[in-house]
Protein: Sodium-dependent transporter
Amino acid sequence: MVASAGAQAGEQGWSSRTAFILAAVGAAVGLGNIWRFPTLAGENGGGAFVLVYLVCVLLIGLPLMLSEFVVGRAGQSDAIGSVARVAEESRVSRKWRLFGGIEILAGFLILSFYSVVAGWVLYYIWLSGGDFFGNLFAGEPLRGAFSDMGQDAVSGMMGELFASPGRLIGVHALFMVATITIVASGVHDGIEKAATWLMPAFFFLLLGITIYGAFTGDFERALAFMFTPDFSKLTAPAINEALGQAFFSLSLASGALITYGAYVGREVNLAPTAATISVADTGVALIAGLMIFPIVFAVGLDPSAGPALIFQSLPVAFQTMPGGSLIGLLFFVLIFFAALTSSISLLEGPTAWAIDRFGLRRPAAAIMIGGGAFVIGIACALGYNVWSDVRPLGFWSIFAEADILDTLDGFTGKLMLPLAGLLMSIFVGWKADRRLVEMQSGLSGGLFLAWRFLVAWVCPIAVALILVFGLFPELLV
Ligand code: TRP
Structure:
């Protein structure tokens, strides 16, 4: 048997099915759910976007997640090696490993800007926490760093962070070092351990803050906003955005899930596991919306404020609410936990590949890949100050306004992930040996046929159409 990434690095893979689920849910649940999903829903009119998103998760995301696990466990290697091995066993060209390569590159690029955004979270923890505990020890009334500050002052504070390359790069570095440290410690002692501690804490905080928001915020309006579709908002770019978000949020097509599939024992039934992970991830996205929008509406903020929604608006909102300074601090701790369990999975995909491909030791591989992503992240950070005029893909209509970070985010999410997903669906649906796929999937009879139909027909056609019209909306008029 070909040694898996885990085996070469002296790993045995996950210690249990629960550990696997926690790690995979940890990968899925992240900034995508709490920062990206509410932002995109807000920008694209709420209900209509949520509806398309849910359809994408069900018909495309879930089937492809199972496909990734199947390829990983059958291939017993990193994203490229696993595809090559399944291709060999199915007697088709090893060139199919191209989509494994796109996945690994996408994961690497996502990691680079992900760590920058997670750095903002660290900065906010620092600000709100420092002041909160300062007041606590001074015996003053509990308030946060943002108390008594108006919108302008908080915006100014965010502006200060963004104007300072040193601060942006510093917090980015801090987050990347934490990520590298965990991945270097191994699948079992690093990734699995982090997930089993952080994920339960995350769920606890999430429920707490949501209940708080339901009592203190405008819950009804949030519900109406998120679940009343306005079909005039369903443009091709909005649909592309929803599809890309489904890929991003489920951690599809970015190297992680094939790799995690390789660490899963033979006894685990993959289909119900993929369903559990998808449901958990989607549930967290919806709950995050129900956590954020009631507060947004209660204080009269604009739900389409974009990425600044969380970092600029919510700190102010929290201050106007009872106990808000503590809740504000906990809120950013919550996002930090979610981001960390995701970033370690983002790093693991390319790291496993570097271990397999070059025979590197795990710590060396994690440092080199994480270091590379850190350097690209620096460019993202500079895109807010010294390079703020740079529009890397400015010639392309949908990227015309995008700064460096937004360009990387959009390019991976709207293009690379769906493209790799498209190739994967053709590979698993048409090329890979049918018996091998069926056996690994854990599905049989009608359920297997339904899954195969989705993977072989629905995914490629839908993703191809959405890609073409989403990337070139001009074609529609
Ligand atoms: N799913 C993560 C989130 O929602 C982001 C992500 C995309 C990811 N691809 C990944 C995380 C691969 C881990 C591995 O924040």
Notes: Residues 1-10 have pLDDT under 50 and may be disordered.
